[in-house]
Design a protein that fits this description.
Blueprint: H1 3-12, H2 14-28, H3 31-35, H4 43-60, H5 64-81, H6 85-103, H7 109-118, H8 137-149, H9 152-164, H10 169-189
Helix pairs in contact: 1-4, 2-4, 2-6, 4-5, 5-7, 6-7, 8-9, 8-10
């Protein structure tokens, strides 16, 4: 398989592939057509384009695992919001049909089959980004706690005190802000933000 060529074709024909996949979804689930006034501008189309983009990146890097990781990530979000694994499986299969139709190839079937197979197992939930060896873990924990409580002033004071006590700005950014941003992303993905 020429991964670079197929990845390029996926991106060159991205709109056609996403449109075909969306039409297949609406054909199999007509109730969705009624839900969206203009199906071509729907969230489903944007989601399919993202799915296609991650597929292209995984193909370019000859890494089905990269595509499977994306499927795991997105299914945690979608399971918490609107979509179950059966719907996700159907979207993957519709994208597979669209790719076969538009690119006239079955060379990517392994990518699709592996991702559908992955759906039979529980999603790998992301772990915390507050590593035990993070020298500023206590500050990061408190900072996140203050942010989640809406205590901006306390969060700001905590950081200013850390700098006054000799922590470098670089370490604050890397060990506190970066860890907290990843932590907030994890909480958002797991639908645990209030």
């Amino acid at each position: 398989m020429n991964h670079q060529r197929i990845s390029r074709e996926l991106l060159q024909k991205k709109d056609q592939i996403a449109s075909i996949a969306l039409k297949l979804i609406y054909k199999n689930q007509p109730i969705l057509t009624n839900k969206f006034q203009n199906p071509d501008s729907s969230q489903s189309l944007r989601d399919l384009k993202k799915l296609r983009d991650y597929l292209a990146e995984a193909v370019q890097n000859n890494s089905p695992e990269l595509f499977i990781d994306y499927i795991d990530w997105v299914r945690i979000i979608l399971n918490n919001i609107v979509m179950n694994d059966t719907d996700i499986k159907e979207n993957i299969e519709n994208l597979q049909k669209a790719v076969r139709e538009e690119l006239a190839t079955t060379e990517l079937d392994d990518f699709f089959q592996m991702s559908v197979k992955r759906l039979k197992h529980p999603a790998n939930k992301p772990t915390s980004f507050f590593y035990k060896d993070n020298p500023l873990r206590n500050i990061a924990d408190k900072y996140l706690s203050y942010l989640l409580q809406g205590n901006r002033q306390q969060a700001s004071q905590l950081i200013l005190q850390a700098v006054e006590q000799g922590e470098s700005v670089k370490d604050i950014y890397l060990e506190v802000f970066e860890s907290v941003q990843k932590g907030i992303g994890r909480l958002w993905q797991l639908n645990e933000l209030m």
